[in-house]
């Protein structure tokens, strides 16, 4: 999976989202030439387009959706500190076009946050999802195996983390995301190990390898960036990933999401974990 999938196309000239700390918004009004580059380098978690991420092997996409303040249109954007250039409509169409080319591929689109969305905008977005993906949408009553998806022609699981999804059978509820909210990779791993002790959820769930820097840390490390932080931590984090296992057992993982998904063979290492599951299912040890 890719954490904050759409941050590759953040718009440095867009408004700052309402959820950003107040002090940052105040400073931005005074010296945007300083704050905007800083926000961008600490908000960007991906550098690859949707198609490039799909081609790399990403199948879970973290889509944080918002409406720009004072925007009177139905346009929605993705958000991480600031808004994206690409609209939600365009991104969904890109997914649909790629899936047309590869009918045996399936993706999970985890839609969340929904900052500024009214009931009407939720309805508009849900209607757009149904129009764009149509019969490719896998209903939440379905048993999800690749063989079953291929048989029935389903390619898209939409996780919609809002009560607006409850009356729509072709939308799934929000997928739990294990987020440490820490800047230290060792603390992140400790958190994930702690979560594992409680046992895996019954359905899909995500172990997030993403580090999080608070405002105070960013201000005291102005010469750094989230990318630099992530790349420094990846050898340690991937060493942990290699020791994990998929499957139904209590401490097994499901989806693993990360930043800058081409780093440290992230995708290939996560996919390789499935070989452990295959050996178990065939009785090979």
TrEMBL record:
Gene3D superfamilies per the UniProt record, alphabetical: Phosphatidylinositol (PI) phosphodiesterase
InterPro entries linked to this entry: PI-PLC_domain (IPR051057), PLC-like_Pdiesterase_TIM-brl (IPR017946), PLCXD1/2/3 (IPR042158), PLipase_C_PInositol-sp_X_dom (IPR000909)
SMART domains reported in the protein's UniProt record: PLCXc (SM00148)
Residue span, Phosphatidylinositol-specific phospholipase C X domain: 1-161
Protein name (Swiss-Prot/TrEMBL): PLCX1 protein
């Amino acid at each position: 999976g890719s954490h904050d999938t759409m941050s590759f196309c953040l718009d440095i000239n867009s408004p700052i989202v309402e959820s950003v700390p107040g002090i940052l918004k105040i400073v931005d009004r005074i010296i945007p030439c300083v704050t905007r580059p800083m926000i961008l380098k600490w908000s960007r978690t991906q550098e690859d387009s949707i198609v490039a991420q799909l081609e790399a092997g990403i199948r879970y996409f973290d889509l944080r959706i918002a409406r720009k303040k004072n925007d009177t249109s139905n346009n929605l954007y993705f958000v991480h500190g600031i808004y994206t250039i690409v609209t939600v409509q365009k991104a969904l169409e890109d997914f649909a076009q790629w899936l047309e080319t590869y009918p045996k591929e399936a993706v999970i689109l985890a839609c969340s946050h929904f900052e500024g969305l009214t009931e009407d905008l939720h309805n508009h977005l849900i209607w757009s999802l149904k129009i764009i993906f149509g019969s490719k949408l896998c209903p939440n009553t379905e048993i999800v195996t690749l063989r079953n998806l291929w048989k029935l022609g389903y390619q898209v699981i939409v996780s919609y983390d809002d009560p607006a999804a409850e009356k729509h059978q072709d939308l799934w509820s929000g997928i739990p995301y294990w987020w440490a909210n820490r800047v230290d990779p060792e603390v992140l791993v400790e958190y994930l190990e702690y979560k594992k002790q409680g046992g895996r959820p019954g359905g899909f769930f995500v172990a997030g390898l993403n580090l999080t820097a608070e405002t105070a840390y960013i201000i005291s490390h102005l010469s750094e960036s989230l990318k630099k932080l992530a790349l420094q931590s990846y050898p340690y984090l991937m060493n942990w990933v290699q020791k994990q296992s998929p499957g139904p057992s209590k401490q097994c993982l499901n989806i693993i999401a990360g930043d800058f998904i081409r780093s440290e063979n992230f995708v290939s290492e996560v996919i390789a974990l499935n070989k452990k599951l295959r050996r178990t299912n065939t009785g090979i040890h």
